[in-house]
Structures are given as structure tokens and as C-alpha cells.
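Phosphatase PAP2 family protein
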Amino acid sequence: MRNHHRNVKKFLFTSLAVLLSVPVGLLSQDVAHANALSSQRVNELLAPHKSSYGYYIDQYLLNRKDNTTPATNPSTALFTNTFGQLWSGDGTKKNPKILQENLDKSAAISQHVTKTEELRSFLTDREDSPYDLIRGLGPYANSFIQKANAKTQYTSLPTHELPADTKDDPSAGLIWADDKSQLGPMVNLVDTMALYYYSSSGNAKQYYKYVRPFRQDSQVKVNPYLKAAFDATPQNDYDFPSGHTTQAFESGLAMAYAFPERFQQLVTRSSEVGYDRILVGRHSPLAVMGGRVLGTAVAAAVLNNSQNKEIAQKAYGNAQKVLAKSKLTQGKDDYQNYQENLKNYTLRMTYGFKPLSSTKVPMRVPKGAEVLLKTRFPYLNATQRREVLYTTGFTAGYPLTQDPEGWGRLNLFKAANGFGRLLTNTTVNMDAHKGLFNARDTWRNNLSGDGTLIKKGTGSLKLLGANHFKGGVVIKGGTLIAGKQNALGSGNVKISRGTLNLSSRKVTVKGHYAQTSKGTLQLSSNNRLAVQRNGRFAGKLVVSLNSRPAKKLVIIKVHKRLGKFKQVKINGKYGHYHVKYTQKTVELVH
């Protein structure tokens, strides 16, 4: 009898939904798209892959001078399946074609150096590597220099070529910044990340013994102010992997952890340091790509070490208290152009090399890599941050991307834009009281996948991608801002409570739209909501009218309208307009 009553209730509820032409899932519970992956399957995809050395974050302290072989040093073993397949330390060219292409690219880049690049690459060579990353702070750079007591001896090109006995020491005898300064905790994190024995690229260099490009090919042009100094360096001063680039990613990711407001700009500058090493004639593309891989792995390892937890926490708190609240300068920000940063970072992932193997190999996320995004996405849990890395990873098969753990395929610039795919139901719970990215954030990637996006909490999330994820959107708290026409994907949209804000001229809902009595839709006279299927309206409508609209303005168009807003608020100078409903539209009329 109990089952009979339950079936009757289910039948009546389902029938009501059919009569209203709105799916049961939108009226009762939030159901993921049928093809969304289970939690178990997602965990399987995100599971780390063990390498011959184990996991880098567990073994990184073995990167010592007395360990240089892949059997004893994880920093050397990291490249066994990548650079080790192209070149052997005994001088054997395992892939002559790629190695020649590497030299050709070195020559081409070094032969076409602008005046701006000549100065920047000279400074990159001479300055201490952490100091190089300060420019990635943009308008905060001068404040950092002042409050961290940061120093360098080099600010311009010299008047003549540096002598041959110039020390090959980027720090030039100076300590780059003071760990007892106002920004001491932030400086301490950078030092812990980049200036200890385990952060060195030197052990891998001594194992692979790959000769510097300017010594292999006279077509590689060395910065004229540095030629004598470079020529005087010992023959066992090798190319792969680039030490400057390794330290750049260690330093840049340390700064980005403490000051995630500049995450993408700092990783862009980190990659640019590698490019500067090619411009100056000191390194090859493969070497700087290797530096990116090693520097990223070291950064994650240091942040995962429990002994560094307090150092990292203090650095973040210090940067937010001192640097974030400092007086900004009006100086030039070399990394203010998002599209330019995206283009440059993406190019430097491969430097134009073509794939060497299958591009279909699934992404792998290294153990502990999710910590790199911890402050960038404080409202996501560790599994979700791994999913971000998994769904934004670089295409397989390119040089230096085939390491067993997956360090070479991490695309940190793209990862900072949020998920690339929604593999399953994804709950985003933002607490605005915690500030920064907890209060407001923007996802720029074009979201695909079968999962449902569930927005909770009090913070505001803006979607700027051309999205086509199928699981739909459910808003349970805070604000979701649709910044592009297809920002809401291709599924249903439900506002249980909280606000959907339209900031694109037209926003399309490709499924059904349902708004409960506790939901709010917010738009202006410049915005339109187009619902391709049925729309059920309740709750609140807020319209901003800052300019005189047409006598009749259609703000919502649906296949079939069901219900009306319980409250309508017209803000602005033209608040005397009111709402008119038709079978397929919601209009503003005079």
C-alpha cells in the first residue's frame, strides 16, 4: 500500500510538470545530465600516475649534487621520457631532426631582437631571477620594490661590452630582496621555492650535457654586451634545462601563490624569462621548455611540504595585508593585455614544434599539482582544482610534454581561467565575506562537458566563455553573471535563490528556464534573455533603465511563458515603465 501511494504521488507530480511543460528535475531536484560522470569515474581520471622515481613532490629533496642520474635524482629522471629520447649525455643525437630544429629556432629568435627585447633580455640575464619576476606585478611592482627593499645593479644597457671576466652571477653580489622587510614573509616564500639546492637545474644539466646553442651554431646571435662573458664560461656550462627559466617558474609561482591577483601575469612573465634566454643567445627552446617543467614541479613540491605550510600561509596573508593595500603606481604594465598574454604563453608551450607522438593520450594531473591553484581558487576543493588542471591541460605529444606524471602538459595560464570542462555536477560555493576571489571571480574558458554548474554561497561568478556544457545551471545563492550569449551552456537554467545577472547584450538559454519565488533576474535595457524552450517565472525582476528605451521593449522571449514575476523593480530615471506579459514575451512598456 505504501508503494502504491508513493507511485500515485510520483504520477501526479510528473503529470503536473508535463502540464506546465517544465521538466520534473527543474521543479523538484537538481539532476545532472544523463552523461555526466560519476564521482568514482572522475576520481579515476584525476588519480596521479606514478613515475619510475615515484612522485616528484615526494622525492624532490633528492635533487642534490651527489645525485645526478635518473636512478637517484628525480629532477634528472623527470626528463627521461622527454629530452632523454632526443639526446644522450654521451653526445648521441637520438632525434637529429628535432635537435636541428631546436638550433634553427634558437638562431631565428636570436637574429630578430627588437631594442626593447635587447634591453629586457640583458636585464633578465644579469638580474637575480626572483628580481626578474617583479615586473610581472605590474602596477604593484614599485610598491613591492620599496616594501621588500628589493635591489639590482642593472637598470639599463651598459655603455660597452662586459669584460670576459664578468662573473656569471645574475645576483651581481646583491640579495634580491630583504626577508626582514615589510614584505618579508612573501620574500621568504620565494627564497624557499627558488634559492635552495633542491631547486637547482644544475644536476640535470650535468647529466644531459647538452651544449649551449651559441657553441653549436654560429647563426645563434649572442647579445653584443654579453658575448665576451658568454665565451669565457666553461665548456661544461650546459644548456638543458634552463636554470633561469626554472627559477622564473619557481619564483613566479611563489609570488602568484601569495598574490593571486596577478596569477596569469606572473606566469606569463615566467614564460617570458625563458624567451629572453633564447633572445640573448644563451638557451634553446627545448631548454626553456624543460625549465618550465622543472620549475613547476619544484614549486608544487615546496608548497606540498608540510614544513612549508606556515611559510606559505604567512606569505599569502602578508601580501594581502601589505601589497594588495599599497598605493598603486601609474607605471606601465607590460602584461595588462589579456589576449597578448594568452597568445604568448600558448606559443611558449611548444615554440612551434610539431607533435612527436600521439596527441590523443588522456591528460594526467601530477600528484600535488592542485596546490598551485589553491589561492587562485580558494572556493574550490582540492579535487575540483585537480579537475581544473585536468580539463585545461595541453594537448599530448609535443616535445617536453610526455613525462609520466604530466608536469609538461599543465597549462597554468588556461587553468587560471577556471574549468575547461564540467565532467560532473560542479558546486561552486563562494563566501563573499572572505574577500578577493571568494567574493568575485571570472571564468574565461569555453566550458564543455556534461556536468551541471551549481552556484551557491554569497559571492559572484562571471562566465565569459562561449559555453556549451550540457548539464545546465542551478543558482542556489549569490550571483551568476552571464557575460556572453552562450555563457549558460546548452542545458536548462534554474534560479532557486540568488541572482542571475545578464551583462551580455543577448543571453540564450537553450533549454528550459525556471525561476522560483526566491530567485532574482537582473538586467538592463541593453540586455535580452532568449529562452529557446519554456520559461516559468516567479520571484523578482530587476531592470536598470539608465537611458530612454523604445516605447515597447521586449526583454525576455520564450517558446512558452508560464507564470509571472512576483516583484518587479525598475531602477533609474525611467522607473515609470512597467512590465507587460504575452504568451511568448516579457516586455517593458511606457
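thats it. Residues 64 and 197 are 6 Å apart (CA to CA). The two ends are 57 Å apart (CA to CA). bye
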